[in-house]
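Our example pasted here:


***
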Amino acid sequence: MVKKIVKFVNREISWLSFNERVLQEAADPSLPLLERLKFLGIYSSNQDEFFSVRVGTVHRMIDAGVKSSEIIGDPPKKTMKMIHKRVLQLRDRFEEIFTKLEKELQEEKIFIINETELSLEQQDFVREYFISKVRPRLVPIMFRELRKFPYLKNQAIYLAVAMYKYRDPQDFNYALIEVPADVLPRYVPLPSKAGTQYMIMLDDVIRFGLTNIFSIFDYDSISAYTIKLTRDAELDIDDDVMKSFFEKISEGLKQRERGETVRFVYDREIPEDLLHIILSGLNLKNFENIVSGGRYHNARDFINFPEVGSGSLLYEKSKQIRHPDLPVNRSILDVIRNKDVMLCYPYHSFDHMIDLLREAAIDPNVINIKMTFYRVAKNSNVVNALINAVKNGKSVTVVIELQARFDEMANIYWTQKLEEAGATIIDGVPGLKVHAKLCEITRMENDIPVTYACIGTGNFNESTAHVYSDHSLLTSNPAITKEVKHLFDFFEHTYKHISYDHLIVAPHYMRNKIYRLINTEIKNAKNGKHAYICLKMNNLVDRRMIEKLYEASQAGVKIRMIIRGICSLVPGIKGLSENIEVASIVDKYLEHSRVFIFCNGGHEKYFISSADWMVRNLDRRVEVAVPIYDKSIQEELKQFMEIQFADNTKARVINKELDNRYVKRRRASNERRAQDDLYKLFLNKASGKSGLE
């Protein structure tokens, strides 16, 4: 019997494999201890979003009777079973790692204790903290006699409280308390002796105060158990033509809070009678994603674990580097008038972008600024610069994507702020998400309007620019800036049909233009010429793109890829993909750049892009890939990619087994860690040196 070749990996299982790589970071003893705790938090946050978004999608497919495997790689019901099995395996691994980290914290004299382990001094502190800070935030709901079970917020932590009397088993009660972790720290430092640090979780502060909360009752036993419910995060957008898109998004957000349940997690120590009444009240008796867990949930709060103990428990903070072409007190517009500049975050400082906008805001010759926003920082200096530009008489236009998942409320807020200031707001394009990262600045020079542009792979967000690895091109090249101008014309007048000779724009052109670039490599390989493709992106899911890469591999094209997250392509299959190698780098910074390099018969073509190769990016979003024409930047981008391909410390091999094994080193001394090497590279360039040494 001929074994069937698996050509595509299920996208949901591939995503869980990516999150396992995050969990591997938490288990890596070479990392500073508190950084490992943060990776547990990142893993947990990722897992929450996976259930809200991806599992919610699979649920809807099942409810709609969808049986096709085209979208996700396997039939929805089979996929849900695979997810559940893998999630339980990862849960066990998470708990194993957390137990180990807890012991290592204790070795560092950092103790997370519960309400039963407090000294007398600590009890006094917790009692006062509970009364002054916590109790005013608590509103217990006694639900035993309620006709309708209380509503549970998405991803909030609740304590399900059981109260019993030993002398009268029929006298019992139940209550529900939301843990106010959104307004109070989840980890509370306790009075400690010199050289030690004791902490207690907010959940246990509430447990300590249970008798105070329910003092009007006369129960012998009061205990609390954590539960958490995750809801489907998909927005249902009203099709009422009388409502603005702004209103539709606002109403959709309210409906999201009532989304269908996609996961229920509970403390495995919870009494059976209490669990039964909760599951019955939530109509979850036959629900498949019910997961038993430990005493605590929402481990995502580890991301904000207090910085305690010695400095060696955290990464040494690296100073962000000034780009050598952008010295202090030099006009950035003046620099990019004469040459292209490529910024690479977080190695280069995002202050360069703020400085550019600030300069444009006060330059009397600048007449307008146009930008696209997808995700903006909480206290955005980018927005402040645009508001100042309006105050200085500039015309400011912002295309703001109101459907950026989980940032909808923030984007509504910034829409209102910018409109109040006098900026023109375009809330996306009907039927498409605007995911392209664009900035256009027009300046009058000798009575002629000259356009400057910034085109990037990541958001104009100074918060994420500290931890996301992204590229951004600053240019005044008329061939490119003219087409950036065309794109903003399209946003303002969506009926305009515009063709592009330089930018590769989705959804109308990107897929076919990339096909043509791959076809050139296929043709050259078949003609015995050197042919290769180097790709870096977050996710590779689109089946037609994968089939095209398989075709290229079969023709002899050498393909190397860095895919951080989902990879539905299966490399290394004889006769199909033996010329394809894929690695994934998970390290201290989130790899977020999209870089495409094509051999092109020796005349290499270089692009950076906002788009992954997924159906949504290529067919349902406005995305941009910008060509890199400057030879020195091309060389730097090639060096960047070679450093990534050389990583043998944080790179994992992507294969059909999804075993996340690390790339092997030839010698123990031959350690290459891409993110450290890139920092050295850019630091050397800033000081006038070349290379890594």
